[in-house]
Amino acid sequence: MSQYWINMLFVGASFLLYIGIAVWARAGSTKEFYVAGGGVHPVTNGMATAADWMSAASFISMAGLIASGGYATSVYLMGWTGGYVLLAMLLAPYLRKFGKFTVPDFIGDRFYSRGARLVAVVCLILISVTYVIGQMAGAGVAFSRFLEVSNSAGIWIAAAIVFAYAVFGGMKGITYTQVAQYVVLIIAYTIPAVFIAMQLTGNPIPMLGMFSTHTESGLPLLEKLNQVVTDLGFTAYTADVDNKLNMFLFTLSLMIGTAGLPHVIIRFFTVPKVADARWSAGWTLVFIALLYLTAPAVGSMARLNLVNTIYPEGPAAEAIRYEDRPEWVQTWERTGLIQWEDKNSDGRVQMYNDASAAFTPTAQERGWNGNELTVNNDIIVLANPEIANLPGWVIGLIAAGAIAAALSTAAGLLLAISSAISHDLIKTLINPKISEKSEMLAARLSMTAAILLATWLGLNPPGFAAQVVALAFGLAAASLFPALMMGIFSKRVNSKGAVAGMLVGVISTAVYIFLYLGWFFIPGTASIPNTPDQWWMGISPQAFGAVGAILNFAVAYAVSMATEAPPQEIQDLVESVRTPKGAGVALDH
Question: Which residue ranges does UniProt annotate as crossing the membrane (predicted)?
Fold first, then answer.
């Protein structure tokens, strides 16, 4: 059987599974559409939440970032995992105790303000829309490579599958579909990693293999990797970072951005009790850890395999000739994610760091005129089985897993957008007397509109997916997280303070990012060069969400202290939310 049909078999079987679950779990009420009926088991919810969180960025991009950046990119692992600890300890149980459907529900009622609810809705939609672009783009990459369709066709197929189970199933359909998607993606991620770890180190456990001996050289694997990348002028894989402040703020931004992501928070409204919300967060960490502990090993081993592919006899010897490049390189060249330019017309593939001054003399001695190979980070995980010459069925697994990762998170984000529009705008602010049947229709129409918007943005992205995702985390960190924290733990913060804080946080973060990355990511519109020497106090645009959060807290408290205290019933409500016993049911709307 050809590789194409193996891929079709794995992907097609997974699609049939998702649609079958959607038919079985079709939502029949607003409670089932918004919170899956409120009776999801903590283990099930933990698995679904892990799939909701482990997006195309986690499955496709994270190992690629680690492969290219080494230790410096460990901030993604620390930030995203740490965010779930914050969510489990500081947000999930209290929000479940409050007993509402959505994040704007909590903010609107806690800060007794239609304005606060409206600002929260706008922030939620901005965060979710920007984040979903990366998922659609990731789905397009996976479809175009493995099903041999165009990127555009892949995005439309992804949209159709999400429509099939999200519009009709709502949270109920999405929850059980995400459980299946988690199983698919974790198997797809770990099996190739086990094969590759065995090949390079003889250790079948990838995270242990990374610290084992490289079989061929007899050196520790990371030492061998440091050796080959520094020989090519790159920074040592395990090198420390100079800008500790930026690393700290970036990690913090990812942490509180994770804790403030609305599509993740709403998952904790689906469990029966407050204790279940905390257990769900704990199980989510367990399920996430299976992938996040494997990702550094996948990144390091893929980087070593890539260098060995280009320099089979080591960096000191000649690189491979272009016509001798492996079949996997030829395959990925057709997608445009690997590009080669013969700058010195010698017919060989020179890959090295041509920006390194220390390496320039060596390059001149060898007759090189610049780096000739460009490899997109997003292919590292997807191409890993081919790089390591693994069986065709492993490549089929990777195809199904990559698509599952993109679809699971896209569905969660689209549900968050749909709930904000149908419940928080239409039901709460515009027409409180709307019937449940009409609200369900509004929710499904909102979901359909959100899918069409996400598809259009995936086809016409406003910038690189990584930039857009960075904005999503920054906005979540600077807007919703501080409002949720102050709403739970401060009885003194009032509606005026909350609204002012959210506006200052989200506007300052968006403006700072746009100054360096271009206004709305339009090429050529950046006002300041995006280089470390131009960053304000050395803070990168990706890390500014933490600063926006600090501004949010400061402004909210300053305005609250200068104005009247919240009504006594609101202060009593805050005290009640922090009391461990009891929980409202997530249907009071």
Answer: 6-25, 77-95, 115-133, 153-170, 182-201, 247-269, 281-302, 393-421, 441-459, 465-486, 498-522, 542-559
Distance from C-alpha of 124 to C-alpha of 260, rounded to nearest angstrom: 10
Distance in angstroms (rounded) separating the CA atoms of residues 32 and 39:
10
What are the backbone angles phi and psi of residue 338, rounded to the nearest 5°?
-125, 130
Nearest residue to 542 via CA among 75, 36, 172: 75
What's the whole-model pTM score?
0.84
- Local structure of 548: helix, strand or coil: helix
Cα 432 to Cα 87: distance, rounded to the nearest angstrom: 31
Can you tell me which residue has the tokens 């080959």?
A: 228
C-beta of residue 143 within 8 angstroms of C-beta of residue 158 = yes
pLDDT, tens digit (0-9, with 9 covering 90-100), for 528-554: 998 888 999 889 998 999 999 999 999
pLDDT at 136: 79
10 Å CB burial of residue 460 (0-12, 13-18, 19+) is exposed
Please report the DSSP string for 405-430 in residue order: HHHHHHHHHHHHHHHIIIIIIIIIII
Three-class SS state of 298: helix
d(CA 165, CA 22): 5
**What's the rounded Cα separation, in Å, for the pair 324 and 312?**
11
pLDDT in tens, 33-86: 777 777 889 999 999 888 887 777 777 778 888 888 888 888 888 888 888 888
Judge residue 344's burial from the number of C-beta atoms within 10 Å of its C-beta, 0-12 exposed, 13-18 middle, 19 or more buried. Answer: middle
**466 or 451, greater pLDDT:** 451
Please report the pLDDT score of residue 587 as a whole number.
44
Non-local (6+) Cβ contacts of 255 within 8 A are: 78, 79, 80, 82, 83, 86
- For 448, the 3-state DSSP assignment is helix
pLDDT of residue 178: 86
Query: What's the CA gap between 505 and 482, in Å, rounded?
Result: 9
d(CA 302, CA 346): 27
Q: Phi, psi (5° rounding) for residue 464?
A: -65, 140
Phi and psi angles of residue 340, each rounded to the nearest 5 degrees, phi first: -130, 135
SS3 367: coil
- The answer to whether the CB of 411 falls within 8 A of the CB of 391 is no
- Residue 463 pLDDT grade (very low, low, confident, very high; cuts 50, 70, 90): low
Residue in this structure with the two tokens 């704990």, named with its chain if needed:
282
Alpha carbon distance, N-terminus to C-terminus of the chain: 54
Element (H, E) at 374: strand 373-375
CB 413 within 8 A of CB 263: yes
Tell me the Cα Rg of the chain.
24
Exposure of 581 in the CB half-sphere (CA atoms within 13 A): 0
569 contact partners, CB below 8 Å, separation of at least 6:
none
Better-scored residue on pLDDT, 507 or 15: 507
Task: Give whole-number Cα distances, 105 to 96, 120, 487, 585, in Å.
Answer: 12, 9, 12, 13
* Residue 51 DSSP class: H
* Rounded Cα gap, residues 479 and 507, in angstroms: 9
Distance, CA of 447 to CA of 173 (rounded, Å): 13
